Amino acid sequence: MNQLLRPIFAEASKQSSPIRAMFETGLRLKKEFGEDAVCDFSIGNPDVPAPKQVKEGMMELAKKADQPLAFGYTPNAGSGEIRELLAKYLSEEQGYPVEAADVMLGVGAGAVMCNVFNSCLEAGDQVLGVAPFFAEYTGWAESFGGTYKAIPVNSDFSFNLPAMEAAITPKTRVVIYNSPHNPTGYVYTEAEIKGLVDILRKKGKEYGRPILLVADEPYRFLTYGGEKVPSVLPLYEYSCVVSSFAKNISLPGERIGYLAACKDMPGKIDFVAAIIAANRRLGVTSAPIIGQELLKYCLGHNTDAETYAKRRTVMADVLTRAGYKFNMPAGAFYFFPIAPGGDDLAFVKILAEQRVLAVQGTAFGMPGYFRLSFCVSEEIIKRSFEGLKKAREIVEGK
Ligand SMILES: Cc1ncc(COP(=O)(O)O)c(C=O)c1O
To answer: 284 and 361 share a domain?
Structure first.
């Protein structure tokens, strides 16, 4: 044990993210066998280019790059002008009024979520959510003294509300859900969210303290079949949306995200101020200025969702023909099929031997499944058929 380190970070230093590990395996295999020999479905790194407004905005920003303060500090919450624009955009997107004062810009949805946990958790507190879950939730909660309690979803990937209710304790400070969901592609219905809100109201009353509900929504733009993702904001006053432009504008590396608090939240001014203060406490200070400025040009212009829709159809066809069982994703860009043989860890290794890279469900708190990200071309998806079929046959002894 390295005595310089806090025990949880000494532990974290030994565990690389399984997603990143598979992504790095992919890079190694591509170098060894050639780009075309590997079908890498490991990481949700959007490969569909950013809309043209991003390039146009970059060109405009480049013209000002030699001006004083072109790359200056911005307020911790982000530029006032951008917060105004974002609030207007979110009011439309959420179908509910969002005010500029209730919006803050941060360093991707990830850092904003950390701001929430930093502001709300004390040692021993609980963040409640579902399994499978976005793999970083556990580490984020632990970094701020909390734990992430995961309640398995039903077989159709919907909330198991009675189990969620039973898991709430006086230590439950934050409940988090992600929709459209990574890794299942499930989109929670308004009835489900209302059901969860009813439980939070009841438990909040019982314990004499409100419970915050966070909707993690980077994939909101991506539903198939025209489904609208219900907004949490009109349903519960102690709610906020955390999201980013990583997926809808394909800007994941630019690290630009935000929080929007419900306008009716009691104590909202202090809540938002605390989330902004967490930008200072975390040392990130503010969202990157280029990302903020870019929003003036590209807010409201998304990447091409049709490309993802076509890939989803192709992937479903490949998986069906290769003999896999899965629920069709209603949103986001992932499939979460059942791992043949039941042992997801063993299965993704066998799949990798066929040079098809996936992530074990265990990494998302749901053994027995595996995740495929379709941030790759249709050609690669089609090419993965043989490897997928062979891996299943090996495991099933056929
Ligand atoms: C469900 C979910 N939440 C949060 C994030 C983090 O997003 P960002 O890159 O904006 O930090 C991701 C990224 O993949 C995600 O899938």
So the answer is: no
| Containing structural domain, residue 347 | 7-51+303-396
CA 55, 252, 317, 321 dihedral sign is positive
User: Is any atom of ligand 1 closer than 6 Å to the C-beta of 180?
Assistant: no
- 131 and 235 in a single domain? The answer is yes
User: What average pLDDT does this structure show over 71-98?
Assistant: 97
Tokens of 55: 């390039």
- Cβ(129) – ligand 1 distance below 6 Å: no
- Among 261, 289, 292, 238, smallest CA distance to 115 is for 261
Q: Is the CB of 361 under 6 A from ligand 1?
A: no
With respect to residue 2, please indicate whether it lies within any of the assigned structural domains: no
Please indicate, yes or no, whether residues 43 and 61 belong to a single structural domain of this protein.
no
Look at residue 65 and tell me whether its pLDDT is greater than 80. Answer: yes
* 110 CB within 6 A, ligand 1: yes
pTM: 0.96
Tell me what the mean pLDDT of segment 349-376 comes to: 96
How many angstroms separate the alpha carbon of residue 317 from the centre of ligand 1?
27
Distance 173 CA to ligand 1 centre (A): 21
Residue type, 42: S
